[in-house]
Structure of Antibiotic biosynthesis monooxygenase:
Amino acid sequence: MPITAFLDIHVKPESLAQSATVLHDTLLVTRAFDGCLGVDVLVDAEDPTHFVLVEKWISMEHDTAYRAFRAGPGKSSLGSIVSGTPVLTKYEIATDI
């Protein structure tokens, strides 16, 4: 079953200028990862340091493999610009509603 993951992040104000480059470089790898159906980046209309990444995955297994990759050999530089702890929430489509 497909998964939609929301990654809610805040960028350090002093890193805002480089955030577009870091996000772009990070998402090149994410979007090419097996099972990724796409990633959209939303920016808060009132807070330019607040982003929500909307990731779509073929399955929970693909998402899990991606998270393991990012925690290990695929670690990105995203952590260097993020303020606080990112919040990851995963959703499945409700088929019985």
User: Anything to note?
Assistant: The domain at 3-92 is CATH 3.30.70.100 (Alpha-Beta Plaits).
